[in-house]
Structure formats: structure tokens, C-alpha cells
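Extended Data, panel c. Modelled sequence:
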Amino acid sequence: MGLKALNPDFWRGRRVLLTGHTGFKGSWLALWLLELGAELHGLALEPEPVASPAQPLFTALGLAERLGTRYRIGDLRDPAAAEAAVAEARPEVVLHLAAQPLVRRSYSDPLGTWSTNVQGSLQLLEALRPLPHPCSVVLVTTDKVYANREWEWGYREEDRLGGHDPYSASKAAMELMAASWRSSFCGKAAHQTSSLALATARAGNVIGGGDWAADRIVPDAMRAAALGLPITVRNPGSIRPWQHVLEPLAGYLQLAEQLSVDPQRHATAYNFGPELDANRSVRELVEHLLQHWPGAAGWCDASDPAAPHEAGRLHLVADRAHLQLGWKPRWTFATTAARTAEWYRRVNQGESPLACCLADLQAYGAAVDGH
């Protein structure tokens, strides 16, 4: 199957429940769904505060005003919040992005990480179970669900799950929970529902404009560049599958479309990762970012042997997504780094975050339209 574009007719007017819509990826996806004409509903915590003068992407994009009353601020672990969001949205598609997404934070808050990523996801599925109409559900996990053996080759969907740190292990547990829930409760038996089709999505390391989270290399680097300070890099030799945020989001949307058409075939796990050339070290990523920020102060090695463990090498094989969904990366590593750095540089110079995001969405759409 060749590279496939999204189907605007599928999304126009479709009722979508997006969890985690106030986060980095969630804000990008909310904007995209609104541009596609979906009837978007959301459930998430308040946007996390960020260092001034930046604003959380959700706030900077004016998404609260666009969503109006169609979103709730609440904790997915609260049964009442999950049930109310489902009752209001009556979703035909659910995109579950709500999570505790940071490896280093998982060391300081393992209980919160596990309860959010596993219990919160289970609470959502339980709230969806009574739905009387068909609904496609995409649960987003991570590339870190695999038992990492520091291999030079990529992980496939059937490789063994695992996780050294609490974040990775909680996301692997989320995958096991989803598979168990699907086997137990999706079907036509008396204790099952025939309405829900459930798939999981495992994405590589995502970068792009508007991420201001602490302890992530791109926001740390862009904050330092804006202040004229050297970028401190704690793991310069670690290799990751870098991809622009729009790449996996396109995958989630294509998966939801196909899941609605053929739930039996697509109710499984999918990797969404970049081409092999984009598996680069943190050092290489930082050096590419710096090429697009004239006058930046460079970077320094801040490696700490006593720091909590983080994987040294990780990448994915995304053949299933390509062959079954028609998804494949549209942007090279160089384009991804350039568009990411340009977003921050332009916003730092006073341009509108919304205009920068819409420009990226337009450019990304052109990459498939011109294929």
C-alpha cells in the first residue's frame, strides 16, 4: 500500500473524544481535528504551567475558546469524570492520549505514573463499555513498551514487552491491559460489547513546536537557545527514533479511520516510527537544531553516571502501519529538526504559535498531496 492521505469526509462532523487534549501532543491533535471539522470533545487535566513568557500550547492556540463547553477538566482516574465525558460526547472515535508521559518524573512519582497510565486507561474503557453504537478506540502508549535489549535493529509489534523505569513499565502494562480487555469484553457474548473496536499505538520520540515540558531535550534546548545559554545535554550518545509530532498523529487518525472500516483486522497494536535514518543520537539532534538558530551558544555534555537509568538505544519497525494503513513518515530527520527549531525561533521573534502550527499542518499535508 502506498502513502495514504486522511479522509476529510470521515472526520467532518464525527463525534470524537480526545483525552489529554491539554498536553503537547493532545493540543496539536485537537487543532488538527478541529481543522478537519470534527465535533471534538475533550477530557484532561489543566494545562501544566510552563516557564514565562511561554504559554502551554493549549492556551497559546486558543483551544479553550474553540472547544467552548465541549471539554472537561478532570482526572481520568475518577469514574464520574470518565463517565460524564463519555455521556456528553457519545463518541464515534476515542483517541486516548492522557498519560503521565515523562520518564524522569516516573522515578519521583511511580504511584501516580502507574495509576494514571494503567488505571486511568482502564477507567476509560469501562466508561465506554455501555455505548450502544460503534466506536473506534485508539489507546496511545509508547515505543518504550518493549523489553529494551539495546539492539541495533528495531522492535516489532510482536516483540516482548517490558520496561526498566516506571514510565516504560506502566505503558507496557497498559498494552497488556488493553489486550486483555479486548479479548474479554469485545465480542458478542452476554458479558461483552460488540460496539467497541480497540487498537493501541506505539510511537517513537516525538518532537515539534510547542513542547515546553521539563526534562525533554527539545524544550530544554530551545529555552537555552532563546536565552543565549549553552544547551546542557545529559545523554548525548543515546539514540532515539526522532519524528515530528504530526507523524504519529497522522498515524492515530489513519488507524481510527481503518478501525472503523474493518475492526477485526485493525484491532491490534501498531508501531509509528521514523525511517531508519532518523534514528540519531541526542547530540546529532541538538546539532541539527542549532543550525536553525543563528547565534546560539552551542551545547555542553552534562552526563551524570549517577542519574536514573534511561535507555541508550531504541527504534521501531513500522512495517505493519505501512502495509495495513498506508502510513509512513513524510518528513526526513533534517526536515523534522528544521521545522521544530524554526517553530520556536519564529515564536521567540513574536509570531503567533497558532500561525506556526497551521503552517506546519499545511506543509505536512502538502507532503502527501504532492506524493
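The mean pLDDT is 92. This feature is highlighted in the accompanying rendering.
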